[in-house]
Amino acid sequence: MFIRCLALISSMSPLLAGATDLAVRSGYAALSRYALEKTTPSPAQSQPLNTVVRITIPPNVSTVGGAMRYLLRRSGYALAPAASADPAMRGLLGLPLPEVHRHLGPTSVTTGLLTLAGPAWRLVTDPVHRLVSFELTEKYRRHHD
Predict the structure, then answer these.
(1) pLDDT average per 10 residues of sequence, the chain (145 residues)
(2) Global confidence as pTM
(3) What 3-state DSSP class applies to 132?
(4) Distance in angstroms (rounded) separating the CA atoms of residues 136 and 142
């Protein structure tokens, strides 16, 4: 009986190997006969700024810029240097952090940044250098210049 089962399994191995190859090609890896696992990165791994977070900004952070840096600390992104950002952004980063913004989430990193900046600002991302900055929207640029 054991030998017949062994013969049956070995005769099926090309079929099982083909199923495994098909599973890998379709974005899944066969972990066992009945279990598959995705082989593609999660959306958060592909787009770190879309990661959903829940954060509490510590008491020693007192500015919007400090809160943005804190929010970005594990995303792999950083704030763009002042020299390459909208000159008005320096004013945004130096603003005092509203108390209501000390607890954010659950929210994406992108939405958290937009919340901290406010409606006058548009988020600009540089995925090549993993930098973020902000530009005043046209509506508010007229009031600022």
Answers:
(1) 46 49 67 84 88 97 98 97 90 97 97 98 97 94 73
(2) 0.76
(3) strand
(4) 9
